[in-house]
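User: My advisor, Dr. K., asked me to get a structural model of this assembly before our group meeting. I'm new to this, so sorry if the format is off. These are the inputs:
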Amino acid sequence: MKFLRNQLDKVKHSFEKGGKLEKYFYAYEAIDTFLFAPNTTNDVKGAQIRDAVDLKRLMMTVIIAMVPCLLFGIYNVGHQHFLAIGQPGAAFGDKIVIGLWQVLPVVVVSYGVGLGIEFVFSILRKHPVNEGFLVTGMLIPLVMPPDIPLWQVGVATAFAVIIGKEAFGGTGMNVVNVALTARAFLYFAYPTDISGDVWTYLGDAQAVAGFSGATPLSVAGDAISTGENVVASLNTFGAGWNEGVFTLQNLFLGLRPGSIGETSTLMCLVGAFILIVTGTGSWKIMVSVFGGAYVMGLLLNLVGSNVYTQMPAYYHLVFGGLAFGAVFMATDPVTAAQTETGKWVYGILIGVLTVLIRVFNPAYPEGIMLAILFMNVFAPLIDYFVVSANKKRRLQRATV
Amino acid sequence: MSTEVAEVVEKKSEPLFSKKNRKLITNPLDIDNPVTVQVLGICSALAVTTQMKPAFVMAIALTVVTASSNFIISIMRNSIPGRIRIIVQLAVVSLWVIMVDQLLKAYVYDVWKQLSVFIGLIITNCIVMGRLEAYAMGNKPGPSLLDGLGNGFGYGLILLIVAFFRELLGGGSIFGFKVFEAMGLNYTGNGLMLLPAGACVIVGVVIWVQRSINGYRESH
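Assistant: The format is fine. Below is the predicted structure of the whole assembly, which you can bring to the meeting.
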């Protein structure tokens, strides 16, 4: 650590005012404050902040909360790969190697492209490098399918950072979640690479007999036309090559095909625990997303027009990316509702919309991405109504 | 007895291409652009720009309609009763739209089919109505004609820029010519660009670039 500090101090003078690299001061500052807590302190007068937890360290907490999902995702990519090519007995190490081989490049591309653009904009606009991308850069790989072409990750990241964030004024000014913007971009720009049977990495190997790349969501969607019970068709799915992959227990644990980080509800809950204990994420939003989805599932059970709506409501909570979206995407403090009442409304509507899109729109098997983006746009409106209701209430109480 | 001679001030007629009149053509291209500054005609700008060819035809159609309606309304401007002026304007505009529509149907049938209702919808295009109300009702026929042409060009310019990027990124071609294939590259079309949402993004980027070049700010 001392060595790093010394090295940074040694080059500092050339970045300061009058130095030959003055233009790149903010690039230097970004690296410095990333590695060390800045040593600037407040004035003697005025507000006193005694905590070293600044925005960068807050973002690091979120990244730490994502680590369980990432590690599990790496293992799961390898695990699914060997199951799909008919080698269920492959060694743990081999699975990790395959997983790393698929996941690491995506992470590297996402961070490389995103941070590159951030640095360029910070130098052009002469402002400190925004910390926002630290989290976004990790979220993007976690919501990608395991064998997404790397150039698409790069293009999507560039689009999300420039159009989704910088056009609105940088970190903290974006209207919609940046990582989901990247995913939505790919979803509409290159649909063949991010929907359908892309959730298992096969590589050059031949898939085992009976292999199907379907996800639980598409199995449930297909059940509408066949009229078979959804739970029964989920339980029997994968017979012969991946027995019991879509049983309720396994859906919760997450050893199933899907986006890299989204498969395991358990790991998302571990992340949620870290976020809530450190006070980083809003528990109200997480609870209300799950609650909204569950209640909507129950309501659909009452309607019960087809086999999908008759499916037990708790299945909606372990399906697809609901848990991941609820914990890491919906709680994004920039794009979520700011008022405490607003957070409940915002979360519940996300849950309700997710289930509605899943069940009633066959074109979109998964609804959490679109539901969150949609409610991101509505969050300021929700806040506006909460605030004006509060004003009204207090005005009535006021005695003049 | 003195004879008073009434002084007749002879108004100098302005040459058609005076500096002021030239501005009528050049302003709508940049600082007074109907699409990116006045934010009019967005609907058709999003709808007809998936390819360059229909965008080009649409730009010509709108330029013809705007310029000639401006001209006719400007001639009639002193005899139009104020209370029914909108319906008179609509009648003149629809006359030109129908003529353009029939011409396109006769000579470029495939493009006409692609543009479908959007030719007919020029009647309600905000740019046409806006120029009639804002300019032709209060100015001479010559400058009105130029104003109509200028705004048509301004609209067409943005249409062609948007269509260029949408066709290039979405289908890898320009005016139907496969650019990337001709260079021997394998290009995967970007589906987002073929959706109206993609056009919206491109219009936004055009506005961003334009405003950072000319420093235009909306006054509040």
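One thing worth pointing out at the meeting: The interface with chain B takes residues 163, 167, 185, 188-191 of chain A (CB under 8 Å).

User: Perfect, thanks a lot.
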